[in-house]
Amino acid sequence: MAETGAQPRSQTRSRRRTWQDMMTLLHTDLLINLTLRDLRSQYKRSALGWTWSVLNPLVAVVVYSAVFSLFLRIQPSVGNPSGLDSYAVFLLVTLLPWQFFVTSLTGATRAITSNSSLITKIYFPRWVLPTSAVLARFITLLVEMAVLLVVIALWEGHIAFQWIPVVLALMVLQLLFTVGLALMISAANVYFRDIQHFLNVAMQPWMFLTPILYPLNLVPSDRELFGFSYRTLYQLNPMVSWAKAYRNVLYDLRFPSAERWLGIFIAAGVVLALGFRVFNRLEPRMAEEV
Amino acid sequence: MDSPTSVAGAAGAAGAAGGPAIALDGLGKKFRLTHDRNWTLKATMLAGHRTRYEEFWALRDVTFDIPHGSTFGIIGGNGSGKSTLLKVLAGILRADEGTASANGRLSALLELGAGFHPELTGRENIYLNGAILGFTARDIRQRFDDIVGFAELDQFIDEPVRNYSSGMYVRLGFSVAIHVEPEILLVDEVLAVGDHTFQRRCLERFDRLRDEGRTIVVVSHDLDMIGWLCERTAWINRGGLAAIGPSGEVIEAFVAGGEGALDSGPAAAGLLSLQGLGPDDLVRSVELLDTNGQTLPAATSGGPVTFRVRYDAHRVGEAAIVALGLYRADGTHVTSINSGAAAAAAGSDGIVEVDYHLAALPVQPGTYELSVALHDTTMKKVFERHTHLVRFSVEPGGGDHQTGLVALGGTWQAQADGA
Asked: How far apart are CA A76 and CA A215, in angstroms?
């Protein structure tokens, strides 16, 4: 009896041990602290403080709704099966994740270069710097998406809350994708300061080439370039998959297609792996070049 | 996800293996000196892989061990590579050759409070800094009161650190780093800051760490401190190990052999030029003369000497003041003096010769360096400044044996009272 009793206990212990090892490997405490640093210092000494993070998407929705819905008369597809027909919601479900993506990348670009005093004085794994910069924005996104979900629930009833796990899965996959890209960009920016300027230039066209302000079906599929339809080429942009999936879940209230999920998993996995690879290659000389 | 580093940090308990705390084996670190740095993508694309740079070995072929539980000093002149060595040990820089391995949890004090964020409070910064140094939140919570107590910041711990005085900042930084309880502590010149009371408490803390069997490695210009703090010392010169052994002997060799290790100049001139003066410089020459105006091979402690500075007054265009700064070869500032109105009186024509006479040079034998500057008569404007322009040696001047910085030149008298 004593022997069988000992068995599960040692198993829990080893499981706890593995958990602790993983936390150490991921430098959880350091990540949490650096993320808190970013969040706490973000709106310090500003009168409106956190109100700014609400104002930003609010102003964007008002402006984009006026221009694209009122002036240009873009018809958002009616949510199927939700029956939802509102440009503002149609826009927000993709705009919030997009703004997270943009602010994460611009913030992470300078994550290494602006912490040069830290990097030249203390050794700690450098990948936590861009990663925590992204994590801080992710916390903001969580809050924004929670508010948005409540708004959608006002239309649709509490059935919208059933989709929380799916939205969270999408968000986590987007987080991994963004971290991967942030690692590459932050490391490259140490050696080529052009990256930060390039990023500013690239984000605007990228946004317009992602179905955020308009539905995907407005991209022509009957015209071709190099033998491929515009729609096919357009979908090479990995952000299309996320925009489409977010809209499926939060606007249409249906499960994204297997094809979308596949695209999302591959993009997140490949970019994250590539991100760490590039970062580890560039890390050794960082303290000298920064 | 930790990329492999040549410094094997946090590898087991201290002293478990009985081997050295730190082992350096053929360590080499090179830097690239790029003449035209490719900061832009375009330039790199155009240049391809043919970026032109010179390699410069800041450290080469350094091999020695630092024993467990000892206090170890590293000395050397400016640019000798001793700080690079410390950064390689700390894992900040990666070795290009050989290995540096640390046996035990290592913490480096290269700059106190380097990880502080000015907008965050002292409390928040303790957790942040602790995490950067590898601590978990629970570890910090346990030591929080000790950290605050040692830094003497109980009242201010919830203030943003931007409101801290520099002393408070440094105290907090030191306190966090010391409470990490490293098995090996690397310290770079950080004790030069903070007031005397705090410095004394830091040194007491070092004593305690040493008594606990921890290893402390100190890099400093302060030879006196190294002398009484460290049992053994390594002298790094031009990226190589010049000497290693008991601190007293190594420091003696360093002070005495200071000039021998540099490019040997014309010894007969007495003054070894460290920078050289260009044709465009206003200062034309600096000389060391005896009472008859003859060039001296070296000054003598307690003996007469004249420093002569010649400068191009015509090109200065107005009256000038000559300032001299005297430094010991280890960087210790001995004194700074300026000619005041005496040199200004010479006017602004042709080459002006300014002499500074000393009846008895009041410094101990050793190697010294002289800085020279030209100011306007209000001392507000600097025409030209040459820091550590020349180096010269001061020979023992007979008399009784003395140590320290100055030669007081006094006389002893003893007599029996009464009887």
From this structure: 6
* Domains identified in chain A, total number: 1
Residue B1 at interface with chain A, using a CB cutoff of 8 Å? yes
Q: Which pLDDT score is estimated for B276?
A: 66
Q: Does residue A287 sit at the B interface (CB-CB below 8 Å)?
A: yes
Q: Which two tokens stand for residue A217?
A: 């079906």
CA distance A102 to chain B (A): 22
Q: How confident is the model at residue B18 (pLDDT cuts 50, 70, 90)?
A: low
Q: Does position B75 have pLDDT exceeding 50, yes or no?
A: yes
Q: Sort out which chain A residues have CB atoms less than 8 A from B128's CB and list them.
A: 33-34, 36-37
Q: Quick one: what percent of chain A has pLDDT higher than 90?
A: 48
- What is d(CA B101, CA B413) in angstroms, rounded to the nearest whole number? 57
The rounded Cα B6 to chain-centroid distance in angstroms is 26
Q: Tell me how far apart the alpha carbons of residues B109 and B189 are, in angstroms, rounded to a whole number.
A: 9
> Would you call B127 and A123 a contact, using CB atoms and an 8 Å cutoff?
no
Q: Which of A178, A133, A126 is nearest to A283 (CA)?
A: A126
Q: What is the dihedral of CA A92, A96, A101, A106, to 10 degrees?
A: 110
Cα–Cα distances (Å) from B319 to A188, B277, B314, B362, in that order, read: 53, 21, 9, 30
- Chain A contact present for B31, CB below 8 A: yes
| Nearest Cα residue to A89 out of A279, A278, A246 | A246
Of B378, B364, B354, B291, nearest in space to B330 by CA: B364
pLDDT tens figures, A1-32: 344 444 455 566 676 767 777 777 778 888 98
Q: Which of residues 336-395 of B touch A (CB under 8 A)?
A: none
The residue in chain B having the minimum alpha-carbon distance to the alpha carbon of residue A120 is: B92
In a domain, A1, yes or no: no
User: Distance from B206 to chain A by nearest Cα, in Å?
Assistant: 20
Look at residue B215 and tell me whether its pLDDT is greater than 70: yes
Subunit contact B119:A127, Cβ cutoff 8 A: no
Q: Is residue B52 within a helix (H) or strand (E), and if so which, with residue range?
A: none
The answer to whether residue A179 neighbours chain B at the CB level (below 8 Å) is: no
Mean predicted lDDT score pLDDT of chain B: 80
Between the CA of residue B11 and those of A17, A226, B390, what are the distances in Å?
A: 18, 58, 47
CB pairs under 8 A between A and B: 95
Count the residues in chain A: 290
Q: Flag whether residue B110 sits within 8 Å of chain A, measured between CB atoms.
A: yes
Instruction: Note the pLDDT tens digit of each residue in A194-213.
Output: 888 899 899 999 999 999 99
pLDDT, position A207 = 95
Q: Average the pLDDT over each of A77-81, A161-165, B68-72 and give the range with the smallest value.
A: A77-81
Q: Is there a domain that residue A126 lies in?
A: yes
- Residue B92 CB: number of other CB atoms within 10 A? 22
Please report whether residue A28 resides in a domain: no
Domain of residue A220, residue span: 45-289
Residues A285, B92: C-beta atoms closer than 8 Å: no
Which residue in this structure is represented by tokens 């002036």?
A71
Instruction: Please report which helix (H) or strand (E) contains residue B10, including its range.
Output: none
Q: B176 in contact with A at a CB cutoff of 8 Å?
A: no
A26, A33, A45 ranked by CB distance to B128: nearest: A33
Helical packing angle, B166-179 and B196-211, nearest 10°:
10
Domains (ranges, CATH) in chain B? Answer: 22-256 (3.40.50.300), 267-395 (2.70.50.60)
How confident is the model over B380-391, as a mean pLDDT? 83
Q: Does A46 touch chain B (CB under 8 A)?
A: no
List pLDDT tens digits, range A112-123. 988 888 888 888
Residue A2 lies in a domain: no
Residue A84, pLDDT above cutoff 50: yes
Helices A164-191, A238-247: crossing angle, 10 deg rounding: 160
